[in-house]
C-alpha cells in the first residue's frame, strides 16, 4: 500500500512538473511571436518610408 502511494505521488509530481514546463514553453513562444510581429511591423514601416521617399 505504501509503495502504491509513493509511486502515485512520484507520478503526480512528474505530471505537475511537466505541465509547468509546458506552460513556460507556451509563454516563451507567445513572447517570441510578439517580438517577431513587432520586428515585422518595424521592417514594413521602414520599407514603406523608403518606397515613399
From TrEMBL:
GO terms for molecular function: kinase activity. The chain crosses the membrane at residues 6-25. Keywords: Kinase, Membrane, Transferase, Transmembrane, Transmembrane helix. It comes from the Bacteria. The keyword Transferase applies. This is Histidine kinase. It comes from Lactiplantibacillus garii. The lineage of its organism: Bacteria, Bacillati, Bacillota, Bacilli, Lactobacillales.
Amino acid at each position: 500500500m505504501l509503495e502504491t502511494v509513493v509511486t502515485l505521488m512520484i507520478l503526480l509530481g512528474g505530471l505537475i512538473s511537466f505541465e509547468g514546463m509546458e506552460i513556460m514553453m507556451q509563454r516563451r513562444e507567445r513572447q517570441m511571436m510578439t517580438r517577431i510581429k513587432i520586428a515585422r511591423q518595424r521592417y514594413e514601416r521602414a520599407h514603406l518610408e523608403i518606397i515613399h521617399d
